[in-house]
Amino acid sequence: MRRRGNRFKARTDRDRALHDFDLDVRTRRLNRQRSRASLLWLMRICLAVVIVATLGASLRWIYRQVFIEDTEFRVQRFMVESDGDISESEVSEITGVAMGSPLMSIDLEAVCRRLEAVPSVRSAKVERELPGTLKFSILENQPLAWLSCPPHGIRPYAEGGYLLTGEGLLMQCSRSSQLHRALPVIEVFQIPPPADGIQIPGDGIKVALLLLKQNEEAFPAMADMLPQSVRLKTPFSLSCRYANNMEVTYGLKDLDRALKDLKLIMEVARNVGKKLATVNLLASRNIPVTYFQAEEQPRAALRATPVLPLAAPDSLPVASPKLSSILNRD
Predict the structure, then answer these.
(1) Cα dihedral 311, 312, 316, 322 in deg (nearest 10)
(2) For 34, which of 52, 219, 232, 329 is 20 to 30 Å away at the CA?
(3) 283: nearest Cα among 240, 226, 326
(4) How confident is the model at residue 187 (pLDDT cuts 50, 70, 90)?
(5) Can you point out the beta strands (E) in the chain?
(6) What is the DSSP code (8-state) at residue 97?
(7) What secondary structure letter does DSSP report for 82?
């Protein structure tokens, strides 16, 4: 029994050793297979990288030869679409893009930023049109009036003067066009030193610009009611001279009421066949007005005879009942 047990133990030890050897052989074989597979994948990856790099370099070379070096794909024409009067030469100067520049190498976003940095440009869009056209779509800030400021030596209607947008933004005029010469003038006396692109502070400028906008709505298609100049006379009032040489004084508040009163007064004056010389709309009641005399020309507005002064009512000419009710409302 003892011999049989020793024999069985020896056989078990041998079988275990053979089993361990077989496992070791299999493990080494698997490791070699895995190493070969890893090496194969690494070679494939390196080959793919080489192919991609070669293809990229080839494409860059082809792109450069076709779109950069080829003279056909250079800027040959500017196409400028604008709601203002900006010219192609101004666009070229602002953007720094010259004729003959490689079309495909132009940074369109940078060109847009340069354009929109100009105070007269509200927004811009730039596109390429092959083979050689650069297209600009520009929305400009439209000027509403000229700025006049005698203390700073600023005069209207001249190159180098300043234009005002509806938002009160200053734009220096590089060239005076026919459209610019038709704009009214806003005259101020106390503002900071003006500069291109700044916003003028103060309620006076805002009200003057608002008056120009609302006046156009109140008197559409009336050439004689086009404002010629707006002057900020005091901190609480401004005066507007119209194309018919009538001068109207407004307060800095309640423009809607003032324009409605002006329309009523003009209608009554027209009905009685008189021409208004001055109207003072600072007052909401007992509004003082003067008329041009029949023999006077509109240029003699300052010599107009007042017919509705606030004092000595017995010496006044008799006004029509309708006019009296408008100017002396309860």
Answers:
(1) 50
(2) 52
(3) 326
(4) very high
(5) 77-82, 121-129, 133-140, 143-148, 162-165, 170-172, 185-187, 227-234, 237-242, 247-251, 276-280, 289-291, 305-306
(6) -
(7) E
Contact 185, 228 (CB under 8 A): yes
Q: What number of CA atoms fall less than 13 Å from residue 88's CA on the CB side?
A: 11
How far apart are the C-alpha atoms of 191 and 154, rounded to whole Å?
Answer: 11
Over range 102-108, report the average pLDDT: 85
- Of 250, 251, 305, 249, residue with least CA distance to 275: 305
Amino acid, single-letter form, for residue 108: L
What pLDDT digit, counting tens, does each position of 65-91 carry?
Answer: 555 555 667 888 888 888 877 888 888
Residues 6+ apart with CB under 8 A from 317: 307
| 3 state SS of 1 | coil
Task: Kindly tell me if the per-residue pLDDT of 246 is higher than 90.
Answer: yes
SS3 250: strand
Which tops the pLDDT comparison, 77 or 35?
77
Q: Are strands 143-148 and 185-187 parallel, antiparallel or unpaired?
A: parallel
User: By C-alpha distance, which of 250, 240, 252, 234 is closest to 189?
Assistant: 234
pLDDT averaged over every residue in the chain:
79
Q: Are 308 and 291 in contact (CB under 8 A)?
A: no
The torsion region of residue 178 among left (phi > 0), alpha (psi -120 to 50) and beta comes to alpha
Q: How far apart, in whole angstroms, are the C-alpha atoms of residue 96 and residue 119?
A: 17
| Residue in the structure block whose two tokens are 């805002």 | 206
- How is 16-47 classified by DSSP, letter by letter? HHHHHHHHHHHHHHHHHHHHHHHHHHHHHHHH
Q: Which residue has the higher pLDDT, 139 or 314?
A: 139
Length of the chain: 330
Contact call for residues 134 and 108 (beta carbons, < 8 A): no
Task: State the DSSP string of 176-225.
Answer: --HHHHTS-EEE-S--PPP-TTPBPPSHHHHHHHHHHHHHHHHSTT-GGG
pLDDT at 24: 62
Residue-by-residue DSSP string for 166-184: TT-BEEE-SS--HHHHTS-
Over residues 148-155, mean pLDDT: 90
